[in-house]
């Protein structure tokens, strides 16, 4: 599966325990997304377009109104990266 650089960054942050917070408009559609890593820092690469592509490919999912998290398919699709800690 072809995954862009920005999608890889978001998936990598989610795989390490991050989340995507969202706000819905009056029609019920997601209007604003913010991706946070496990330390609470905001990832600027997560735009609404990247979010929609990840959701359409079923790489992320939300259950019961909770923040979006990575799915098993997302974990399989993300490439390994060094964690510079």
From TrEMBL:
Recorded family membership: Belongs to the UPF0386 family.
Name of this chain's protein: UPF0386 protein K3181_08940
Organism field: Qipengyuania mesophila
